[in-house]
Each structure stands twice: as C-alpha cells, then as structure tokens.
Amino acid sequence: MGFNLALILTLLTAVSGVVLLINRLLWKEPVRAEGKGGGRRVLVDYSRSFFPVLLFVLVVRSFLFEPFRIPSGSMMPTLLKGDFIFVQKFAYGLRLPVTETKIVDTGEPERGDVIVFRLPSDPRINYIKRVVGLPGDTVVYDRHRLVINGELIALEDSGHAYEPRYTESLGEGGHEILITNPGAPGGSGTWVVPPGQYFVMGDNRDNSRDSRFIGAIPESHLVGEAVRIWMHFELGKWPRWERIGDRID
Q1: Is the dihedral of CA 136, 141, 145, 151 positive or negative?
Q2: Residue 137 domain-assigned?
Q3: How many domains does the chain have?
Q4: Tens of pLDDT along 90-101?
Q5: Of 47, 62, 89, 129, which is the active-site residue?
Q6: Are residues 86 and 195 in the same domain?
Q7: Which of 27, 107, 194, 206 has a CA that sits 20 to 30 A from residue 220's CA?
Q8: pLDDT in tens, 43-63
Q9: Residue of 47, 62, 74, 208 marked catalytic
Q10: Residue 74 catalytic?
Q11: Domain range spanning residue 31?
Q12: Is residue 77 reached through a cis peptide bond, with omega within 30 degrees of 0 on the bond before it?
C-alpha cells in the first residue's frame, strides 16, 4: 500500500478542525482552566496548536507549490538525480487534494514544458518528463530525431566535451538532451496523441521510460509544472550549491 501524504495531511487537518469546532459549539468550557477538561483539554490544545500549521501546509502543497526529489537520471542533463525541485501546482488548474478533481481551469501544458504527472498505470507514482506532443499531434521519433506534425525539430550538437549533448529547439526555446547511444534506434515509432492527453519524453532519450513505452498522459493525471531547483543532494556527496535556484527550462 502506497504512502499517501495528501490523504494523511487532509485527514489530520480535518480532525483538528472538527475538534476546535466542537469545542467552540458544544463543550464551551475554559479548557485551559486548572483541573478542568482532562483528556479533552489536551486534545483541544493540540488541535489549536497544529490546525493552523496543517491548514497552511495543505493549502500551499495542494494549490501553490509542492517539493519533489528527482530519483533517476531520465531527465539529464536538465535535471540530475538528487535534485530537489518545486512544482507549480496551479499551472494547469486547481485540484482538490486526494481526489485530484479540477475545480478551476488555469491553463494547459505547452510544448517544451517540464511536467510532473501521476503514472496512469499506478497513480501513486509521480513521473517527471518534458511535453513533446499536444492533443491531436502526430509524433514521429526516428534515429533520435523528432518530427511533429510533419515538421522536423531542429537538433544541434552542443559541443560538450564529456557528454553527447544536443540542443533541441522545441517550444519557445531550446533545451539540451542527452543521447548516450547515437547508433541505436532509440525507441523509434509513430504516435497520434489522443484528445485531452499529452506525449512526454525524458531529456535522457536513451534512458527514459516515457510515452514511447507508457503511452500518452491524460490531462487528469497532471500534477504541475516543474519550475525551480531548490537543492541538490545525494547521500555520501557534498551538496551542489551551484544548482540551487536554477530555473527549469
């Protein structure tokens, strides 16, 4: 059974809020008075202390920003294993915690956005990839080149001394991708993106489990847009301070 932090946080906030409401409407006694209240006094005191904090964290995490840790190298060189990032939750709509029901529409992903989404086959797991195809697009990936709706996406050698990096012109700006095995097929194929879904790929093109293998991502599974790195740390290594604050493009 997966660890559902959103559910636990929502339940704790609701329970502490209900305790304060009951105390205000029914108990109506000075719970802090000496010798009065007993266990009830302890319960109300704890609820009074924790409810504002829990409510604040719930609102920020559900509607504004949520931290994530990058667990693999599938988004190299843009994101490295050990990066801690902020995800803007309101980028593609405001959703209720736990149920993930959209209540306010605030926008849609654009080509080139780096997004976090819930894996369709197991919504308890979050993935991070780059949006390549929009609803209705025809995406062709052949010999490490992208063709979208018949247009070949520009790809230039970045001239990196130690890694086979290339600059791909996708969306409004370019971003670097990593091709570790230029001679391999690289998950080639042709896909038509269904309505209301998005085709995503990792920047580490030869080492990414993305829409080439898991299918397009439904809009209902979007979590938010990755916007900023706030820490980089791997066990047994010094933090990489130079990555702190970097914008994710």
Answers
A1: negative
A2: yes
A3: 2
A4: 999 999 988 889
A5: 129
A6: yes
A7: 206
A8: 888 899 999 999 999 999 999
A9: 74
A10: yes
A11: 5-63
A12: yes
